[in-house]
Design brief:
five-stranded mixed sheet; 10 helices; 14 strands; homodimer; alpha/beta; globular
């Protein structure tokens, strides 16, 4: 069996995923646990109990953690780094716990394209990972889309993260599906590709429209017999993802992207929907698996930390 | 005491308000009851029990009802009328119950500015009432805004309702306040005028932006110390109402409104916020109380029904 080298941890709001990795960042084992929102304390003991089997076999292991574990509600607060930031700056600003055996990757803050503050935690690590996994991203100007509950759009130039923008697209979709009369709660939620494409096409017909003025169509089209009840959620998904993509391309692509492909980092199903929306608006895409990007990013930080000069500087 | 002439009923999704009126439509007494969503049957007996005191004193009374009571989930389904419709057409298309003693005002359907079906129930009666209450609305082109859970924007020409547009602005605001991490659930909900104005101003600085890309600022501004936690809901309200007004004026005001004031029909507090958003975008407004408009509209239909020729035609 490969020699275990470190623990890579993605500890978000709703879930904790710990990966036992070798020194090349390959995953040897996985342990899941509860997210940050489920607790206010006991991060220490929870972490130790989850990796007990690994330390029993391999001895003490260094760990790199990212996500909400570094927020004011997490284990310890790793202050936000200000954009623009390079991968090395992120890697050198980790918060050490237990004398540096555990390191928490800091979140980032920036001014969004509207001049307002924006923040992220966890996605910085996925972006580091995407840069590791895709050499083509490392030079030139690139837009990375990280879809999810809070979708992030990040603008990179020569591997430096210039700024980003958050859209709570996934959260609003879930709120409407779970609590609104507009999408029936009894509706089966199987993805309906035709309804998704229809919602997307509607947004593209009127790209300047406020999405607020299209959402009621989930209900009115059903009432008027123009949309099957079971297709409401997918139609809504097409509207919301279409509006997210359309609006983001308007404000994020002002620096010339030189025809570069848009990189979508996320789980396969959601990334495919965003890629479809980007493609419908004329943009080629490259998809990188979100879990792979997290692990690669944590491995990137581990290697920065364990380089001899880094050990010297950090300890 | 004034002589009771009829019962005016606004029976919506969440509430029933019955008004005992004289023949000029003045309210003599009021009874409240549960909305349509609370029941699937027993509308007959509920109605009779609520007005029992009135019929005991005044004998059998004709009634005009509007709202979701006429939907497929209500007492009896009054089919949608297609726009464009005149007040007389609405008044002559009521659904008779109990041999015409009770009449339900039909809802309306139209193609919205995007060519999609839209529907309303209850607001048609408030629009009839607004026309009764404000002579200036009866000729020329006018835009009426009826803010609420599902805000309606209605375009009138010479008293004929041409089309309308729905925005679930109030519903999305409530969903985010009640269920989202973006606006803290523990936040006191007192209106913060400065935060509302700030949200509104942000929308006006970037009128083309998708509101999806501004909502996260409720959270990120708080995290970065630029918005007090207690002000989050009001900031969100400014963003959403600003986007609703901005988007609606773009798509609804294409027919020349001839500098006419925009009429806002709703409860005082919400109407004031919409008037503020309209004013910030350079539009003068006139506010009509939503309850008064409902009662006036129901009275309008009652008078149409009780005119001698109408009695002849309807019975």
């Amino acid at each position: 069996m490969d020699k275990a080298a470190f623990v890579a941890g993605d500890w978000g709001t709703t879930a904790l995923r710990l990966f036992l990795c070798n020194d090349r960042g390959a995953v040897l084992a996985q342990q899941d646990g509860p997210g940050v929102s489920a607790r206010r304390e006991g991060f220490d003991s929870l972490y130790d109990s989850l990796i007990a089997g690994w330390t029993h076999r391999h001895g003490p292991l260094p760990a790199i953690l990212c996500g909400m574990v570094g927020s004011s509600l997490g284990w310890a607060e790793a202050p936000y780094l200000e954009c623009p930031v390079s991968p090395d700056q992120i890697g050198s600003a980790t918060l050490p716990l237990r004398g540096g055996q555990i390191r928490i990757v800091p979140g980032l803050t920036c001014k969004n394209p509207f001049g307002a503050p924006d923040v992220l935690r966890g996605e910085e690590t996925q972006i580091l990972g995407a840069l590791d996994l895709s050499e083509g991203l490392r030079s030139g100007t690139h837009l990375i889309c990280l879809p999810g509950t809070h979708t992030k759009w990040a603008l990179l130039q020569d591997s430096t993260l210039l700024s980003f923008l958050t859209a709570p697209t996934g959260e609003i979709f879930a709120l409407l599906c779970n609590h609104s009369v507009l999408v029936r709660a009894t509706t089966p939620r199987a993805q309906d590709d035709a309804a998704f494409a229809q919602g997307l096409a509607e947004v593209l017909r009127f790209p300047q429209a406020q999405i607020l003025h299209r959402i009621f169509e989930c209900r009115s089209r059903l009432v008027r017999g123009q949309l099957p009840a079971a297709a409401g959620a997918s139609f809504l998904s097409g509207l919301l993802i279409g509006a997210d993509v359309c609006g983001a391309m308007q404000v994020m692509s002002k620096p010339r992207l030189d025809g570069a492909r848009i990189c979508v980092v996320g789980d396969a199903k959601l990334a495919r929907l965003y890629a479809q929306a980007l493609s419908a608006q004329g943009h080629e895409t490259q998809i990188i698996d979100g879990r792979a990007a997290s692990i690669a990013g944590l491995g990137h930080v581990y290697r920065l930390m364990s380089a001899p000069e880094a050990k010297h500087a950090r300890r």
